[in-house]
Amino acid sequence: MSFYNKVVIITGAGSGIGAATAIAFAKQSAKITIIDINEQDLNKTAEVCKTNNKDVLKIVADLTRDEDIKRIVDDTVAKYGKLDILINCAGIFTIASIESNNLMKIYDRILAVNLRSVVALTNYAVNALIDAKGCVVNICSVAAKLITKSNLPYSISKAGLMHFTKCTATELADKGVRVNSISPGPVKTNIYQYSGLSEKEINVLKDISVDCTPLGAVIEPEEIAEVVLFLSSEKAKSITGSDYLIDGGMLLKGLVSLR
């Protein structure tokens, strides 16, 4: 696959799936805009991308701020003249249940990052995407389909994102814009490190991640990135409104408890 002269925005590009996706697009000659709230992490990704491709625009942004959302699209179009592909990778996670005392604080934060920011960024980018007859790939989660105890806000955010993907795909199909999602299971990222959980809780979650997959392994972010590139390519020109499950068989096992 070659993405020569294609312009791509990737959020959450400082680490994990977002970083792997940015690097993969850079290797395929895309012109990329990489976004993250953590400047140090974003700089590391940018350095790797630039060893393969000099067309890298780096934007430190808070995706819960509408002015930052607009700046991402405006700066990308100003630099490259168009936008072909939007990859929504940014996401946060922490444990919470209906009995948690701080549930609504956690809920508001997770929904703001995992769902609202995707809606806002897609909305602001939609005219450019229509002009380019481009595509959107949203990183969802197996949590959108799997009943998971103590994972209420995150599961809701990803279920909402999956439905948003299908609704948007329906609305944009006649305009030539494809919209798909990917639902990973446990992936080797640092999402737990930013969750506010203790080291002990994080280690327990890592053990659960392995135990709950029939294949008995955590997924590499590069595996997800490869599917992102496929869905963004001409090879997937007839695919829209679809969700690709890459979970190591996690959904086969059913109910998961994080505590």
TrEMBL record:
Gene3D superfamilies named among the record's database cross-references: NAD(P)-binding Rossmann-like Domain
Coiled-coil intervals: none
Keywords associated with the record: Oxidoreductase
GO MF term list: oxidoreductase activity
Keyword DNA-binding: no
Keyword Oxidoreductase: yes
Protein name, per record: Uncharacterized oxidoreductase YxbG-like
Pfam families, per the entry: adh_short_C2 (PF13561)
